[in-house]
Amino acid sequence: MIGNRITYRTADGVRVPGTWRHAFIRNGDYFLTDLFIYADGLIDCWGLVTLEEFAEKLRCGWVATELPDGARVSAHDLAAWRFSEPRTWLTPELLLAEVRDTIDQLNGRPDSTDRCLAAVDAFLADRTEENRTAARAAYLGIPETQRHYALGDMDRKDWPLQVLVTGPGEHLDGAPGEPVTQEEYDDAIAYFEERARWIAQRPARVPADGPATPFAPAIHLYQSHFRTVPDDPGTTALRNDFPAPVPADGVTYPSVAHAYWALSTTDPDARAAIREANTVYAARDIAAGASRRDGWEQARTAVMTALLRAKYTRHPALARILLDTHDATLVYDDSDSGFWGDNGGRGRNWTGRLLELVRSELRAEQAGIALPEPAATEG
């Protein structure tokens, strides 16, 4: 199960989401490690393998589900010990089934539990033995270690589900004990009918101030080289090197990038040369050769925020382009900086994040929300 263990790997510049769980690798001795599972179906068990290759790793015991008493085991750089009366609930088949479910969950597809509950709904809507048989097969398709979570009921676990798919007078999958009674079956039917009513009446669980994730698809702001200003620049106008004059420290600069590099130094000659630079790259090179302003690294995000505010306040047409991105995540490329750019998932994307902030401020202004001004410091 995914839980809160979310990670990713980068493949061809694309983030592939994943999760991880603990596992034992048998390479002579046994080693406690992390098993990484990714949405594209690759699994890292001391090397990336496909799902089919992972199944073979389980069959041969490389990924170990049998833990023999007295075997040596190590957690790298942490501890070493021997197994003493070890107990494990997993088999190769169970672990493989859980991994398959995890891949479905990472892709937003129905997993074995979802498929079971859908089959139960079909049975409740049309209570034929054929539909019950399908629901029972779907229930048995849930990894045994996960079945008691299927209903999300920590009091009754999966007991009503077992009874429903078995039917009165029958044993579930040949299990020992008394067969299901009519009273137990009627109770299970009542449980699912009440559950259906509760689900139908349950209000949509949307946070009071809006959703946690954007509804618009992400927008990638690729690097561009502007020789002339296009009539319809589209989202390229959101680039910091787009020709859009902004004022800074009493001087107007050709673009946000020019102003940023000028403010990074206190050298007046360098700042004048940056202002006149024909390209952003020339402006950057001039700034790189000048002395850096004290405290620049700590101040640069505030400087960029102010420059972006100036750009979109001064140029309403560009503000409209920014607002038209709605709530999309803005992914900004910057080959020179892993701080300002996303750069294939390896950077911090601060430019994209600040653009989203300024977009929100513009939206607040449109909505007539008066934002508080920073208080003046005394002394």
TrEMBL record:
It comes from the Bacteria. Pfam families: DUF7638, DUF7639, NADAR. CDD domains: NADAR. Residues 111-201 form the DUF7639 domain. Signal peptide: none annotated. Gene3D superfamilies: YbiA-like. Residues 7-110 form the DUF7638 domain. Residues 244-363 form the NADAR domain. It catalyses: 2,5-diamino-6-hydroxy-4-(5-phosphoribosylamino)-pyrimidine + H2O = 2,5,6-triamino-4-hydroxypyrimidine + D-ribose 5-phosphate; 5-amino-6-(5-phospho-D-ribosylamino)uracil + H2O = 5,6-diaminouracil + D-ribose 5-phosphate. This is NADAR family protein. It comes from Streptomyces coeruleorubidus.
